[in-house]
Write a structure and sequence with these properties.
The structure holds two protein chains of two kinds. In chain A, 0% of the residues lie in helices and 56% in strands. By secondary structure, chain A is an all-beta fold. The N and C termini of chain A lie far apart (41 Å). Classes of the chains: A mainly beta, B mainly beta.
């Protein structure tokens, strides 16, 4: 059974510092991995989608890497801003699951202090 | 604007009173699903649908029903809600079926409280 872990559960950094968020998964045979942002009481906003054949994906200040063999993905956010404060979730599409079910990590709650 | 909508956004109800949470997407997506989010447990899939009239159980289907009569709509039905169904519910959709790698889009969430 696929399990997804995000450590740390919470992170606090001063504005301007780079953020590094970790995601690990137990079954390396995945279709893709998706990073989401969730603001308190709100829905999930998709940030980046990495296909299983890709090693990284970039969007503006965000860069996500994927190492399938080691079961890891890292989300980098450059030059963090207070507006980056949110919970960040990673989710994998398991290889053998029916449908497009995503298995989620528990999330990392980020606070960027001005 | 491409989006997934849910209604209502907030609902407080009593044990045993049937309710329906609607979900609609305007992207012509084939795949739709429902998740619930609980502190310490993360998001867990309740039900999913591969296409019209095709639905199947996710990880936590007990106490829920769904239907997919039209491609754009995927309502979640709680026939007899109980307090342990108090949660934040998300509907999601994506273009592809199993075996594809399409991005999933989530609705804004429905916060349900059952007293």
């Amino acid at each position: 059974k696929q399990e997804v872990t995000q450590i740390p559960a919470a992170l606090s950094v001063p504005e301007g510092e780079n953020l590094v968020l970790n995601c690990s998964f137990t079954d390396s045979a995945i279709y893709n991995l998706q990073w989401f942002r969730q603001d308190p009481g709100k829905g999930l906003t998709s940030l980046l989608l990495i296909q299983s054949s890709q090693r990284e994906q970039t969007s503006g200040r965000l860069n996500a890497s994927l190492d399938k063999s080691s079961g890891r993905s890292t989300l980098y956010i450059a030059a963090s801003q207070p507006g980056d404060s949110a919970t960040y979730l990673c989710a994998v599409r398991p290889n053998k699951a029916a449908g497009n079910k995503l298995t989620f990590g528990g999330g990392t709650r980020v606070l960027v202090k001005p | 604007e491409a989006q997934v909508t849910q209604n209502p956004r907030y609902l407080i109800t009593v044990t045993g009173k049937k309710l329906t949470v609607t979900c609609s997407q305007n992207m012509n997506h084939e795949y739709m699903s429902w998740y619930r989010q609980d502190p310490g447990l993360g998001l867990r899939q309740i039900y999913y649908s591969m296409n019209v009239e095709v639905t199947d159980k996710g990880d936590v289907p007990e106490g829920y029903k769904v239907s997919r009569k039209e491609k754009r709509n995927f309502p979640l039905i709680l026939e007899s809600p109980s307090p342990n169904q108090t949660s934040l519910y998300f509907c999601a959709s994506s273009l592809g079926l199993a075996g594809t790698s399409y991005e999933q889009y989530f609705g804004p969430g429905t916060r349900l409280t059952v007293t």
